[in-house]
Amino acid sequence: MMDNRTIYENFIGKIVCGKTVFAIGDCHPSFPDLVYPINFGTVDISNIQMDAYLIGIDTPVEEFKGRIIAVLKSEEKIGDKLVVSIGNRNYTDEEIKECINFRERFFDYEIIR
User: Fold this and answer.
1) What is the dihedral of CA 11, 83, 32, 30, to 10 degrees?
2) Fewer C-beta within 10 Å: the chain N or C terminus?
3) Would you tell me how many other CB atoms lie within 10 Å of the CB of residue 96?
């Protein structure tokens, strides 16, 4: 049986479609001071539904199609997340961290490429 790391490494580079849960400018319902500066949604991949940060687009969207460029493996029990790039740009780990810091700064995670 493959571990999550191996499964996640196989996700990198895949094109996925998803639906936005929080669009740019939305507030988190439990934490109203948490405003989403990027779109955040869900993706179904290999029969697994995962949360996904969308980077590379600066307007709110309801649905999206993009390429998985990284997986955030949570060191806590909050759930792992995908990083999906809209367009062909490949972001550095530092650029990814800058995009997701508004929410992930509260948690420990590893970026899998």
Assistant:
1) 10
2) N
3) 20
pLDDT at 2: 57
Stretch 44-69: mean pLDDT: 96
pTM of structure: 0.93
**Cβ of 67: how many Cβ atoms within 10 Å?**
18
In angstroms, rounded to a whole number, what is the distance separating the alpha carbons of residues 21 and 23? Answer: 7
Average pLDDT over residues 46-70: 96
Q: First and final CA of the chain: distance in angstroms?
A: 20
Residue 2's nearest CA partner among 42, 74, 49, 11 is 11
